[in-house]
Amino acid sequence: MKMAIFQVRTWLSRRFSSVSSHPLQVCVVGSGPAGFYTAEKMLKAHQGAQVDIIDRLPTPFGLVRSGVAPDHPETKIVVNQFSRAAQHERCSFFGNVTLGSSLSLAELRELYHVVVLAYGAESDRVLGIPGELGNLFGGIMDIQIAKT
């Protein structure tokens, strides 16, 4: 893990001498659907923009890869679309990079013109508000139930 952190920081420091001296540099934190749709739109809207996608997981696509119920294979078709974006010459994916430990938000803001936070929830969270019912389930629980 420390080697991955070193590699990312080394690559970033070599790549960016100054944000202002390069075309639009975009970092998307999170490689699920929100992250890839954002990357795709940025690549189309800004000729010359470089989009880097980072994720704490080693592989891209988030819950599309691991959370789609077996009876919904059509949902996984977007992986083809996301793969095309990932293979774009101006797009790079960096896995095993955790915001807050591998790199800080402040570091990303120094290195990029735009930082998009598109990471999802890894677990459900109880809100602790009056009226919260015991028979309501969050999205992660819903996915787990659907996959069984």
From TrEMBL:
<keyword id="KW-0560">Oxidoreductase</keyword>
<keyword id="KW-0521">NADP</keyword>
<dbReference type="GO" id="GO:0016491">
    <property type="term" value="F:oxidoreductase activity"/>
</dbReference>
<keyword id="KW-0285">Flavoprotein</keyword>
<dbReference type="Pfam" id="PF13450">
    <property type="entry name" value="NAD_binding_8"/>
</dbReference>
<keyword id="KW-0274">FAD</keyword>
<protein>
    <recommendedName>
        <fullName>NADPH:adrenodoxin oxidoreductase, mitochondrial-like</fullName>
    </recommendedName>
</protein>
<dbReference type="InterPro" id="IPR055275">
    <property type="entry name" value="Ferredox_Rdtase"/>
</dbReference>
